[in-house]
Amino acid sequence: NLSPFSQKVFRVIPRNEEQVEIISALASRMQVDFWQPDSVTQVKPNMKVDFQVEADKSFEVESLLAQNKMEYRVLIDNLQTAMEAQFDSKVRTTGHSYEKYNEWETIAAWTADIAAENPDLVSRSVIGETYEGRQMYLLKVGKSGTNKKAIFMDCGFHAREWISPAFCQWFVKEAVETYGKDSVLTNLLDRLDFYILPVLNIDGYVYTWTNNRMWRKTRSKNAGSLCIGTDPNRNFNAGWCTIGASDNPCDSTYCGHAPESEKETKALADFIREHLSTIKAYFTIHSYSQLLLFPYSYTYKYPSNFQELNSIAGTAAKQLASLHNTKYTYGPGAETIYPAAGGSDDWAFDQGIKYSFTFELRDTGRYGFLLPESQIKATCEETVLAVKYLANYVLEHLY
Predict the structure, then answer these.
(1) What's this protein's family per the entry (predicted)?
(2) Strand, coil or helix: what is 349?
(3) What is the per-residue pLDDT for 3?
(4) What are the residue ranges of helices labelled H in 30-157?
(5) Which CATH architecture has domain 104-396?
């Protein structure tokens, strides 16, 4: 077997059910890592399907697609090269940088530093520990006050989505740097608290730096299986494992043996349950696809406040596009992309948190999970605009 990194990433657009079947057949014949959608079961006609295969299988893949007259292109010709090309930041520092992808140790140290340097604005706590025993740090950002409502935001659910933790760090930087200067953010921090979890799936994130850049799940062992990990975003008690999730531990969308079976998801759920009276919005940051989603993903039924969520998502997408003209699609998860049960956004909404949103950051597939560091700044700046708009809306519509 060739080095694991000379893989290729293909984009195929199946035009009918027959072509969807060909993709399924391909996936059962060889090891296929789906980038978008998350699994072969979610593939449907006219959808962009991005997947990665071993280098020695790419010839076979191309001939099969060509034989069946399927539309396809190679998005990434050599994964190893694309991985190296990610690190194109001009910042030459060994320590933490907001314009680089930081390893977990660097992020952990940063959480301590940012709290120590901004004691009147940031405090750090531990909400649990991961399967491998790492502490899960949570930052609380806001001016101290009484009876404050809060917004919860997490990053790094899926290990390979590196732009996600980069955004949580950037958002904290914006808060501390522009407090007292930017009137909107100052007002938000005076009147609301932001709970920010920079990385949920820390073990998985560490593994993407040390072993396999394309790892997605947690790193917990599964009884009766050699396959490792659970998809944390299929592990919540919201239509758990009913649709768009797998009960096979070897699959990338494995729902776990029970809801909140993962220490990481349970820590998050416990924290939110304990603070339900104060948390009024939930934002979870993923990549890639440039989407702003709201409930539901586990059912096609609309939430009771659909009209309101749809309208504010539309405005947030406009705000985001105003900076670099980055186009986002928005809507309820199930119909905007595909049904997927057990997500944290649906769960938070069902707990009574009316404003629950999932961001899928840049890009739309040119780099996929390997977004170059040179795009971190622009991605974060535009996303901050959407988050600020949503947070401000929540502040003006407290319940």
Answers:
(1) Belongs to the peptidase M14 family.
(2) helix
(3) 53
(4) 58-67, 79-86, 104-117
(5) 3-Layer(aba) Sandwich (3.40)
